Amino acid sequence: MDSQMQAAANNYDANTTIPIGGMSCAACAQRVERSLKRLSGITSASVNYATENATVIYDPQQVRLSAIREAIEKAGYEALEPAGAGAVDEDRARKQKEIKTLWTKFIVSAAFSLPLLYIAMVPMLTKYGITLPYPSGLDPMNYSLIYALAEIALVIPVVCAGYRFYTVGFKALAMRSPNMDSLIAVGTSAAIIYSAYNTFQIAGGNFRAVESLYFETAGVIITLILLGKSLEAVSKGRTSEAIKKLMGLAPKTAIIIENNVEREIPIDEVEIGDIIIVKPGAKIPVDGTVLSGHTAIDESMLTGESMPVDKKAGDAVYAATLNTTGAMRFRAEKVGSDTALAQIIKLVEDAQGSKAPIAALADKVSGIFVPIVCLIALAAGTAWFIATGGDLKFALTIFISILVIACPCALGLATPTAIMVGTGKGAENGILIKGGEALETAHKVGIVVFDKTGTITEGKPTVTDVLPAADMDADEVLRLAASAEKNSEHPLGQAIVAGSRDRGLELSDACRFTSFTGRGIEAEIDGLTVLAGSAGLMGERGVALDALETEADRLASEGKTPMYVAVDGKSAGIVAVADVVKASSKAAIERLHGMGVEVAMITGDNRRTAAAIASEVGIDRVLAEVLPQDKSNEVKQLQGEGRKVAMVGDGINDAPALAQADIGIAIGSGTDVAMESADIVLMRSDLMEVPTAIQLSKQTLRNIKQNLFWAFGYNVVGIPIAAGVLYLFGGPLLNPIFAAAAMSLSSVSVLTNALRLKRINPADWEAPVGYAGGAVGVDAVGDAGVDAVGSVGVDAVGAVRGDAGGNG
User: 0.70 exceeded by the pTM?
Assistant: First the structure.
């Protein structure tokens, strides 16, 4: 929400959000917004087409809420009731009903328009020697009136299925705010009116008028547009799923302590100051501070970082994160809309809503195109009526010819057909592109921002190094450490166990096991006392580390977590664990460099770890120690440099940044919410698909421009011919049948050109690597931008590294 609306809200004005039904494009949202702003007492009104909501700030002393809702209704739309407690389910049911209705209309329309097209086209094909089965009783040459009436009978159900195009389109024209529905209504109405006129001509004995029936043109246009509307509704439904899944993360209930008695209550009833108990395996219900107990919290659903974070008294916990190991009590400090999760949901809503859908451009064009074409048709028809001494048939032929040849079918197909083929080609190569806006924007990307954990790296700890002391064997050091950690629930310990099993080592059972919280463990293995953990633990037990400390520092500088191992009081070696870089990361970044694209990395990790990873894969710019809620702010700052920004991530904490970026790209192995918030999803989790997606965008946009050129070209050339310019200079008069043929030809050329995209091969897009990137720079922004979201910036990896392998 902009600063004006925020300022207004502080002046005791009321703020309301009203869901709106019936909007079909961005022009509809603009019309509702204008209608609301005309009311006295409205401080600010913003209609969001993506979320289908109107946010209104108003003075209750001047205007009532009922008047606001009435203004929406008068504009031709439905002011829905705000969703209640079951908001997610109610909204899903409403969207599913809308999608089902559209598909039903499309099926009905197709069932009648296909036979309509068949009986209209087969007689024409016969003239070219192509013979298909055809009922003799509908022969247009011998039974012209029956043929015309049959077409009318078939087109009426199609028009009924698409009735909203007429009710909305003509109303928009009447309100001087034409939209895409207006284009459809005017074009198909022109064809139907002209055809109806010629049906009367046939009934009057002029059987040659049968050659001027265009009912099938109107029927097929309506059917194709209904198909597009159905697909659009499905796409919009999937976009809103991101917010629904975010809302579904929080638990429904919480266990509070009241008079020393545990009581389970609904999450909505939790108040600030309540003492809440959370058992192992349960989710944290609200934000707060730990009072007692020790545990490890899996914050991956919030931060995207894979390793659980140790929590003790005084530490902050956040709603929807998962308590993994121990029971604890905490005090509720932020509830409802103030929790970190709720703030992230709001960020996603705002970022998604701030993007204008690609249909907005078409609506702006239609706002000029439709009135101008109608004026040209009216002016030309009137001029010829006067010039011919009142020949209505001649004037009507001119008028209808202009409207038929200017039918927006090719203009409407130019973008969606290329998008359909382009997205299909992307899907063949593991790139799921959710809509036309992503394809339109991706080619302009000047900087790609990668999240680190789970995107550039694998997202899970792995044993990378085993450095034995002089008198020890590497496998034996790893075997002893893994045997000691076998009963540990700590993620680093589990990584060591997994690493030993990958090497085929036989683990032994521990006779005794002791955990030193935050420092390490001690166990008896095969009669040997094995100590594994941090340098501090080794110092407490009198273990001399000698040269191993230098090696540990080197490993830490490379972004790895070193864990010391001692046997019977003597240092035995080091086992290093790290989140390793994906195999495709470096190659993908090199390819982006070859395309002239700058590459940045954003992470909550400390600067040393981030710089080590960046140096390994060739990152140009590093944003380290970034709080989760501030990732979207960092994207905004990069956008402020005047470049298009693509964000690549996989965690829930990436969702606001994915939505804020010009292009959000989610990794297929990431969270569902990240994938739903993104514009593009890489289904194979291969970063090489990032530059491939950008190249696909370039190819598709080039195709769209070619399509638009042909679509507009036909209109620019065809409209003057239809207006009788050639006839004026002694040439032929354009018959509406040729106008319709030209319109069809424009559509065929657009479709044929779009299908060329199927022949492109992503393997041909390899760009030579010749990018001279600068030195890696690390920006520490961890302390900046702390707002109402709270201190969500827990560095999960850094916290564990600080414990140097200690057991949680």
Answer: no
